[in-house]
TrEMBL record:
<dbReference type="Pfam" id="PF02518">
    <property type="entry name" value="HATPase_c"/>
</dbReference>
<feature type="domain" description="HAMP">
    <location>
        <begin position="413"/>
        <end position="468"/>
    </location>
</feature>
<keyword id="KW-0808">Transferase</keyword>
<dbReference type="InterPro" id="IPR036890">
    <property type="entry name" value="HATPase_C_sf"/>
</dbReference>
<keyword id="KW-1133">Transmembrane helix</keyword>
<feature type="domain" description="Histidine kinase">
    <location>
        <begin position="476"/>
        <end position="690"/>
    </location>
</feature>
<feature type="transmembrane region" description="Helical">
    <location>
        <begin position="393"/>
        <end position="414"/>
    </location>
</feature>
<dbReference type="InterPro" id="IPR003594">
    <property type="entry name" value="HATPase_dom"/>
</dbReference>
<dbReference type="InterPro" id="IPR005467">
    <property type="entry name" value="His_kinase_dom"/>
</dbReference>
<dbReference type="InterPro" id="IPR036097">
    <property type="entry name" value="HisK_dim/P_sf"/>
</dbReference>
<dbReference type="GO" id="GO:0000155">
    <property type="term" value="F:phosphorelay sensor kinase activity"/>
</dbReference>
<keyword id="KW-0812">Transmembrane</keyword>
<keyword id="KW-0418">Kinase</keyword>
<keyword id="KW-0597">Phosphoprotein</keyword>
<dbReference type="Pfam" id="PF00512">
    <property type="entry name" value="HisKA"/>
</dbReference>
<dbReference type="InterPro" id="IPR050428">
    <property type="entry name" value="TCS_sensor_his_kinase"/>
</dbReference>
<dbReference type="GO" id="GO:0016020">
    <property type="term" value="C:membrane"/>
</dbReference>
Length: 690
């Protein structure tokens, strides 16, 4: 399996991924900035809460219309909570516009009794508005013929004036407009008919919508419903937050005076919501603003979403909602009335990617806690300040990553190009004939790659000088050895003439003559190789047909090597190549001589010529010993021989080197391979077709 190339360009692309740390670092910086802005928001909210608390401490009437409620908060389950209304209430007996108003419910006291009542309350201007839903299986209307005093089903309102109870009865002979009448001692100057409303039938009972001036109530409000039956012996049932025989003051009316809203309105821009609580946890005043400020519209929504997602904190709990009864959640009340300043963070119920900061401060009267201020604000208020910073950071990071990646890619491409050129030059520095090229590019660049190319050039220059020395060594040796060999030969001839008359030649002379003959053979072989290199350029190449040449050479080789049958396989069509006939003959001489010398007696030497695409393959095969693996790559180098036995002849390993010189000159490729059936060696020469 080919190993995947992991070049410099890919490596630097991987390294460029480290640039992604830039936006990560930017996000960490934004987180730190968000933390700093969160602390600043907390300090601002604390300052707002403490300012409002200080104002309420100096003016307790902002929380308590009756200061007696500080020491006697009463039963919170029986108190009536009235929510301020921004719009005038239309009194018509129907529940339109009351859908979002908190409702208090008093169920039936006995299982067999179906009587129950629920109450909703609003304040607007100087009036209190009540909506009572009475569930009654049998509605009995007032009968004026029985008595002038209210009879039948009726509602009794109990207020508090100058330390005394004031009861007002509301009954009607038929659905429609109704006015109150005094149901007991009446305080001087109080007109009961100022309390009026509408009585309307409803499914399973009736509804009563009332308008009451706040000045008639005196800070306390009780009520009970009297359920009459048609039978004289039927018991009368009552239900409400007070009872007919109660002698103590009625429960408190909790509402928001106009002075509270006026005092809190300067703080509208400081927070999303402000709540002023009494010591029982009732919300007696508050402001609510929209958390979706238009200041973030300039930021693209997708960037804002990404930014909010980065800063989101899913570990935060949901903010507790305001109870329908007009109180905060019990946890918030305990935090707010603890007597100490507190700060908490929740998940914004309007958006899971935002946080909600809630700060509370106690309202103190001396050492006593008489109320609390709860201020909350969404993180959107300060996150919007960093939207533009985040978008710019994202843009700058993307630009920096892009420029860094392009720069690294360009630098990697330049390095890859320079190293590729160096690698290509190194791969082509040695030609097919083993000659080292002298045009290796040497860079002048002052970096490591330039230094490497210059070192390569110096190394190749030295190697080329050494190679040139080796190539001319045989010529130099031939020239230097001819004279001493001639002297030795002359001396041996004179010595033989001197001793010829005495007796037969000495064995020492015979051995000296044999050694001299061997030295002459060495010089002749070396001279042949040297002359061949010089004579190659004197043989011009021209097209000619290999087939008739091979047929002629078969007959010649059969006469030269009678112990080895010469087999020939050639095609019928011409095999035209661009070569020189003399060189082809010399090449065949060396190959056939080498094949015959390795073949056992009687084994054939086979010549074949086969077409292969745009080439002709000339093969010379013989039976005999296989080529050792350690010399297959250097078989055609000079002075290389694979013979393991001494046949008494001189073998310098120059024959196949001559074959390679000829094939290189002709532009042919030469190779050697072992064969298995029969065992032997095949040498192939591939000529390009003319």
């Amino acid at each position: 399996m080919e190993r995947l190339r992991f070049n410099l360009r890919r490596q630097l692309i991987v390294v460029s991924l480290l640039l992604l740390s830039l936006p990560w670092a930017g996000c960490q910086f934004i987180r730190e900035m968000e933390g700093a802005l969160g602390e600043a928001q907390e300090q601002a909210l604390l300052a707002t809460a403490e300012t409002i608390a200080a104002m309420a401490s100096e003016r307790p009437t902002l929380i308590y219309t009756d200061l007696g409620r500080i020491a006697d908060p009463g039963d919170s389950h029986q108190s009536v909570y009235a929510q301020p209304s921004l719009h005038a209430v239309v009194v018509d007996g129907y529940a339109e516009g009351w859908e979002d108003v908190p409702r208090a419910h008093w169920p039936a006291s006995h299982a067999e009794d179906s009587l129950s009542v629920s109450l909703q309350a609003l304040t607007h201007s100087e009036n209190l508005y009540l909506l009572l839903h009475i569930e009654d299986e049998e509605v009995v209307y007032h009968n004026p013929g029985l008595s002038r005093e209210p009879n039948g089903d009726r509602v009794i309102l109990r207020t508090w004036q100058n330390g005394r109870r004031q009861d007002y009865a509301l009954a009607t002979a038929a659905p429609g407009s109704v006015r109150a009448s005094a149901a007991g001692r009446r305080e001087r100057g109080v007109d009961a008919e100022q309390i009026w409303g509408y009585w309307q039938d409803a499914l399973g009972g009736y509804t009563l919508e009332l308008e009451i001036p706040l000045e008639l109530i005196g800070g306390r409000l009780g009520f009970y419903v009297i359920d009459s039956k048609t039978g004289n012996d039927s018991p009368v049932h009552t239900i409400g937050n007070t009872a007919p025989l109660d002698t103590h003051a009625p429960p408190w009316l909790i509402h928001t005076p106009d002075a509270v809203q006026a005092a809190l309105s300067p703080f509208r821009a400081q927070a999303d919501s402000v709540h002023l609580l009494d010591n029982a946890g009732w919300i007696v005043g508050g402001l609510q603003t929209s958390a979706d400020a238009p200041r973030t519209r300039e930021t693209f929504w997708l960037l804002r979403l990404v930014y909010r997602s980065i800063l989101s904190n899913n570990a935060l709990t949901q903010a507790p909602a305001i109870q329908a009864s007009g109180k905060l959640a019990d946890e918030e009340i305990s935090h707010s009335l603890s007597g100490a300043v507190s700060s908490r963070r929740y998940q914004d119920p309007g958006n899971n990617n935002r946080a909600l900061r809630v700060v509370s401060a106690p309202v103190l009267d001396g050492d006593a806690v008489i109320g609390a201020v709860v201020v909350s604000q969404s993180s959107e208020q300060y996150l919007s300040l960093t939207d533009q910073a985040f978008s710019r950071l994202l843009g700058y990071s993307a630009l920096a990553i892009g420029l860094g990646a392009i720069g690294l890619l360009a630098y990697a491409s330049l390095l890859s190009l320079r190293i590729g050129r160096l690698s290509k030059a190194a791969s082509h520095v040695i030609g097919k004939n083993g000659v080292i090229s002298s045009n290796f590019p040497s860079s002048n660049a002052p970096d490591e790659i330039g230094e490497l190319s210059r070192r390569y050039a110096e190394l190749l220059d030295r190697l080329r000088e050494y190679n040139d020395y080796l190539r001319t060594l045989s010529r130099k040796l031939t020239h230097e050895l001819r004279t001493p060999i001639a002297v030795i030969q002359t001396s041996l001839e004179n010595l033989e003439e001197t001793t010829a008359s005495e007796h037969s030649p000495s064995p020492y002379l015979i051995r000296a003559r044999a050694g001299l003959s061997r030295l002459n053979g060495i010089l002749q072989a070396m001279s042949e190789a040297s002359r061949l290199e010089e004579s190659l350029v004197q043989n011009p190449l021209r097209p000619f047909d290999l087939v008739p040449l091979l047929r002629d050479m078969q007959g010649a080789y059969s006469a030269i090597y009678p112990d080895h049958p010469i087999e020939l396989e050639v095609p019928e069509e011409p095999a035209s190549v661009n070569a020189a006939a003399d060189l082809i003959v010399q090449l065949l001489d060396k190959l056939v001589e080498n094949a015959a010398s390795f073949s056992p007696p009687g084994a054939p030497v086979r010549l074949s010529l086969q077409p292969s695409g745009q080439t002709w393959i000339l093969a010379v095969s013989n039976q005999g010993p296989l080529l050792p693996e350690d010399i297959r790559s250097t078989l055609f180098e000079p002075m290389v021989s694979s013979r393991t036995t001494d046949d008494g002849q001189l073998h310098l390993g120059l024959g196949l080197h001559v074959v390679r010189l000829i094939s290189d000159y002709l532009g042919a490729d030469i190779s050697a391979a072992n064969t298995t059936e029969p065992p032997g060696v095949t040498i192939t020469v591939t000529f390009p077709a003319e």
